[in-house]
Specification:
With 328 residues, this protein is an alpha+beta fold. The protein folds into two domains: 4-148, Chitobiase, domain 2, CATH 3.30.379; 154-327, 3-Layer(aba) Sandwich (Protein Transport Mog1p, Chain A). It has seven helices and 17 strands. It has helices spanning 40-49, 73-77, 118-127, 129-148, 154-160, 212-226, 306-316; strands at 4-5, 27-31, 64-68, 82-88, 96-101, 109-115, 165-166, 175-179, 182-186, 194-203, 236-238, 248-255, 258-269, 275-285, 290-299, 320-323, 326-327. The strands form three sheets. Strands 8, 9, 10, 11, 12, 13, 14 and 15 form an eight-stranded antiparallel sheet that branches. A six-stranded mixed sheet has the order 1-5-6-4-2-3, with helices on one face. Strands 7-16-17 form a three-stranded antiparallel sheet. The longest helix is centred in the middle third of the chain and has 20 residues, at 129-148. The radius of gyration is 22 Å and the shape is elongated.
């Protein structure tokens, strides 16, 4: 049973004196009773915060995590931006999960999990594993997106406006390539820590947005036409597994009144040796009768990819349609 508590409700407007939350991107703090630090409860928590991040094609932890006892929290760590607090409350009948924002700092998330026994705590944490991960990931991506709205690539934003949309991507993405209903922006870092933004549209005839096979077919045709390799027989495409199936992990989410298909996957250079992870957001513009796709992809063969890809996924969350030359 999941109970949403109103513990620690607060907002920035009511507390203008709050400091800005601190912490590195993808960082997460876990606070639990000191007596539980060396128990199997800590091992259960580790399955939430120390597992592999999805969709990278390599092993990287989902978060930069740190676990502490309650004693050191008040003095040093109260302003951390992403926090998971574990509490044991003997006598409590049902485990609960509560969420609060901006309690000790601006742009801060705190998640509380409380249970009456070790057995209940262990079971409840396991049940809520993916939910807790999603809460933190959404918060961190939206936090990064808010930062990008203040400082972003003016070049990419200006070029996308010709297609009726605006977006805020990192300032490192300074060069673009335009095509029919298509835009590609790249950092052009020479093959290391290279981040890229792609936008394109195609006609919508009423088909289901969750048709992953159709998405891959459309994606590959668009990328083949617009992102070639250095040789005539090379182009970017969705990576294939040993049996020839596309390497993608789709997820259908409801955002407001609309559905958005989020696809994580791997890309490769056809007849080449380049590749890496990508994330795509796909949604339908029913008024314009078109499918709108925005994507971030990374090429960084010799270094970590998690933070790079999340910076691009945060950018995707800033995409918005223009209405008569203005933001919608």
């Amino acid at each position: 049973m999941l109970v949403l508590l109103s513990w620690l409700t607060a907002c920035t407007n009511e507390k203008p004196h709050l400091p800005e939350a601190k912490g590195l991107p993808c960082e997460m703090l876990v606070i639990m009773p000191s007596a539980l630090l060396n128990t199997d409860i800590a091992d259960t928590v580790a399955t939430i915060v120390d597992c592999d991040a999805p969709g990278l094609g390599s092993s990287e932890r989902i978060f930069r995590s740190m676990t502490i006892g309650e004693r050191g929290y008040e003095k040093v760590y109260k302003a951390m931006h992403s926090q998971l607090k574990i509490e044991l409350a003997p006598g409590q009948k049902q485990p609960v999960l509560g969420v609060a924002n901006d309690v000790y700092a601006r742009s801060q998330l705190q998640i509380l999990v409380r249970a009456g026994s070790l057995a209940d705590l262990r079971s409840f944490l396991s049940q809520q594993r993916e939910h807790i991960q999603r809460l933190v990931l959404d918060f961190q991506l939206d936090r990064y997106a808010a930062m990008l709205r203040q400082k972003y690539s003016k070049k990419v934003d200006a070029d996308l406006q010709r297609l009726g949309y605006r977006v805020n991507v990192p300032t490192d993405i300074a060069s673009t390539k335009k095509g029919k209903n298509f835009l590609w922006g790249s950092s052009n870092r020479g093959g290391e820590k290279d981040i890229n933004f792609v936008f394109y549209t195609y006609p919508w005839y009423g088909e289901e947005i969750a048709d992953t096979a159709r998405f891959v077919f459309k994606r590959d045709s668009v990328l083949r036409a617009n992102i070639p390799g250095s040789q005539p027989n090379q182009w970017m495409q969705t990576a294939r597994g040993e049996q020839g199936q596309p390497v993608v992990w789709p997820s259908l989410r409801k955002v407001g009144d609309h559905q958005r298909l989020e696809i994580r996957g791997l890309w490769e250079l056809h007849n080449g040796f380049m590749g890496g992870p990508f994330v795509s957001y796909v949604q339908v513009d029913s008024i314009a009768r078109q499918v709108v796709v925005c994507e971030g992809f990374v090429f960084s063969p010799n270094s970590a990819k998690r933070d790079l890809l999340r910076s691009m996924e945060a950018s995707l969350r800033t995409l918005r349609k223009m209405d008569k030359g203005k933001d919608k």
